[in-house]
User: Which sequence fits this backbone?
């Protein structure tokens, strides 16, 4: 059975943000390394396994996902 990889649009849908935001993250080096490439050169298409994106999404800072970087209200 072939392995299915997520393209930019698939990543965006999976985590509930716009495709343009994912492309911006990519341009800024904020996405994990792709699990696969198809094609070569400038037109190569990147692909991620769903579990790669899920792990990255759990770990990334953002809307309500600050991890231990912020204190609790008890610290105030």
Assistant:
């Amino acid at each position: 059975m072939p392995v299915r990889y997520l393209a930019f649009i698939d990543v965006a849908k999976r985590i509930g943000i716009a495709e343009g935001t994912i492309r911006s993250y990519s341009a800024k080096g904020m996405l994990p390394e792709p699990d696969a490439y198809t094609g070569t050169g400038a037109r190569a298409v990147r692909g991620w396994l769903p579990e790669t994106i899920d792990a990255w999404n759990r770990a990334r800072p953002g809307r309500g996902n600050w991890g231990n970087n912020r204190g609790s209200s008890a610290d105030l």
User: Anything to note?
Assistant: Residues 15 and 54 are 8 Å apart (CA to CA). Residues 8-61 form one domain. The chain has three helices and two strands. The first strand starts at residue 36 and ends at 38.
